[in-house]
Amino acid sequence: MELLLQGLRKAIEMILSGDPVILEITWRTLKVSLTAIMISTLIGLPAGMMLGLIKFPGRKLILTLINIGMGLPPVVAGLWITLLLWRSGPLSDFELLYTPTAIIIAQTLVSLPIVTGLTATAFQQINEKLIMQIKALGATKIQLVLILLKESRLAILAGIIAGFGRVIAEVGAAMMVGGNISGETRILTTSIVMEVSKGNFDIALALSFILMTIAFLITFCLTYLQQRKRSQ
Amino acid sequence: MTSLITIENIEIKAGDKPILSVPRFELRQGEVLGVMGPNGAGKSTLLKTLALLAPPGRGSVFFQGQEVGDVLALEVRRKFAVALQQSLLLDTSVYHNIAIGLKLRNRSRKEIKEKVAYWLEVFKISHLSKKHAYHLSGGEAQRVNLARAMILEPEVLFLDEPFSALDFPTKVQLLKDMKQVVENTKTTTVFISHDLVEIKYFTQRLIILMDGEIKQSGPTAEVLSSPNEAAAGFIGEWSELLS
Fold this sequence. Notes:
The complex is a heterodimer of chains A (232) and B (243). Chain A is built from eleven helices and no strands. Chain A has helices at 2-16, 20-53, 59-70, 74-85, 100-124, 128-136, 141-151, 153-169, 172-178, 188-197, 201-227. In chain A, helix 4 (74-85) packs across helix 5 (100-124). In chain A, 77% of the residues lie in helices and 0% in strands. Chain A is mostly helical. With 243 residues, chain B is α/β, with parallel strands linked by helices. Chain B has helices at residues 43-50, 70-77, 94-104, 109-122, 138-150, 168-185, 196-202, 220-225, 229-242; strands at residues 3-14, 17-28, 32-36, 60-63, 66-67, 80-83, 156-160, 188-192, 205-210, 213-219. Chain B has a six-stranded mixed sheet with strand order 6-7-8-3-9-10, sandwiched between helices. In chain B, strand 9 and strand 10 form a beta hairpin. In chain B, helix 3 (94-104) packs parallel to helix 5. The mean pLDDT of chain B is 92. Chains A and B meet through helix 6 and helix 7 of A and strand 6 and helix 3 of B.
């Protein structure tokens, strides 16, 4: 208990003192995680919509692979990306290994199946007669898609929230492809692991409180967006 | 009466199974047409074909004598309105549900506001305007559904069993109100129903659809009192029940 309180005190102290290292790590964490979830949403939303609405050969196989992908261990994703970006790997020319971009790629890889899969499920659940009714109201194809997006916003935002939860908490892949380099690729989760390994439990706890606060605030905003106007 | 919608050589199949086979059929301007038939007879498929919500297979659909291809489909479809058995309202207020068709047509806010107010009044649901559509009773939701269709001032109104899920007193009241609306607006209407009483009360002409084919067509009273051999089995069972 004493350790927890000490950690909390340390967290407040670190935030109030404006510790530049902490601010830098926090900012990088936010930048990397929000970029990754944004990319996942930009790819996963249209892909999930297509998979949910359009029936084509191989659709079930793709959905199965996406569902498997939802359980993809981050370290495995990290390993694949490391191999791809490694000096002798096929994408070595880009020199992305041990950069924040590599972490974004890894986090996108682990969150993309979640956003795509849950979006596809949301669209599969749409009553076909609702689609017919919207068309009958005179909707163009684009208008139809926009209405369906609005109608499915609860489930879509649930997918984005779940995906964000995955990226903000992710450590294995970030450690592997980012290398936890001070001032370059260190983010909150990798810092916590490092501080624990050094025996600095108070700092680790302080960092964990900052991480939880960020996760809480962003999830709260997404949940607010998801639930607004529902209580009328 | 002139023909408003004509369909020709419609052959729709699900796999090898024929769903709808209609060599020629005309929907006449200003009429209220009833469509009856057992489950799986092809009634909804006929509605979807007439309302341009499903491709006509190898056949053709004509609106006011002009064949409707892909290019014209949306333009012509916007002259129609459809209300289905399920009200299928959107996740928003009653007001916005009724306004949606006009919004999709980019009408001005002023026009939308005036027309929504008018149709809320006609369907006696002005007090529900701000209520969320998911908090309505079955009868209220169906009134919103019908107002959402009528606000479009359609040249053809398609009703697919809109009263079938309602309790008896609600159904009777809504049926009366809807008949009044259709008569006042002189809207050409296609009304699918399983209920002989609804058909008798609401429609002027009736077609009996069985196994995807029109077995009989004529004035409603005539078809019901003198069904031909093919339709007799279906109509006869109903008449027996009512007598």
